[in-house]
């Protein structure tokens, strides 16, 4: 930084500092406005859901999460009474690695099996609904017959 030796240099430096201050003030206002927009309830909800949907966009992410969950559950089942936490972590890690390997190797078969299970469940639900509708119709028909019998008396 140079030394200020006369009035003109002082005025130039003051103008430069005022420009810097204006720029910084504008940046501060923009930052405050951006933060205000981010904390609006609608934006909080939107950001939360976008984070959720981004994390489970494709089926491989779901399979990896399933591998982590399965390895943790199996490790807890195997070492349920153990208080050796480092050993439990190693078993979980080994199971996770094995599950990840199997899932990546047989990913298409696992996805196809998942679709088959979903189709089977959907078919059973549809059958259950149809069965309930049939039973409801039979019950209503019986009630109408009973009303007809009672009216004839």
Give the gist of this structure.
88% of the residues lie in helices and 0% in strands. The protein has 153 residues and is an all-alpha fold.
Give the integer mean of the pLDDT values. Answer: 80
Estimated share of beta-strand residues? under 5%
Regions with pLDDT < 50 over 5+ consecutive residues? none
Gyration radius, to the nearest Å?
34 Å
- H-E string: HHHHH
The coarse overall form would be elongated
Strand runs, count: 0
The multimeric state of the shown protein is single chain
* Main beta sheet strand tally, sense and closure: none
Distance between the termini: 114 Å
Q: Structural class, judged by helices and strands?
A: mainly alpha
The DSSP helix count reads 5
Q: Can you give the helix content as a percent range?
A: over 70%
Describe the fold and architecture.
There is one protein chain. The chain is an all-alpha fold and 153 residues long. The chain has a domain at 10-55. 88% of the residues lie in helices and 0% in strands. It is built from five helices and no strands. It has helices spanning 7-38, 41-55, 59-78, 85-105, 107-152.
Q: Top keywords for this entry?
A:
5 helices; mainly alpha
Tell me the layout of helices and strands.
Blueprint lengths: L6 H32 L2 H15 L3 H20 L6 H21 L1 H46 L1
């Amino acid at each position: 930084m140079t030394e200020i030796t006369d009035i003109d240099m002082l005025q130039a430096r003051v103008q430069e500092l005022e420009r810097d201050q204006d720029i910084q003030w504008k940046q501060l206002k923009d930052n405050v406005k951006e933060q205000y927009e981010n904390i609006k309830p609608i934006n909080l909800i939107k950001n939360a859901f976008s984070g959720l949907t981004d994390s489970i966009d494709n089926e491989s992410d779901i399979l990896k999460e399933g591998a982590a969950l399965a390895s943790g559950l199996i490790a807890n089942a195997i070492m349920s009474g153990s208080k050796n936490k480092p050993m439990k972590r190693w078993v979980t890690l080994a199971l996770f690695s094995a599950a990840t390997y199997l899932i990546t190797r047989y990913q298409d078969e696992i996805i196809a099996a998942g679709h088959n299970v979903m189709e089977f469940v959907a078919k059973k639900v549809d059958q259950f609904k149809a069965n309930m509708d049939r039973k409801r119709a039979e019950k209503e028909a019986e009630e109408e017959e009973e009303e007809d019998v009672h009216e004839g008396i």
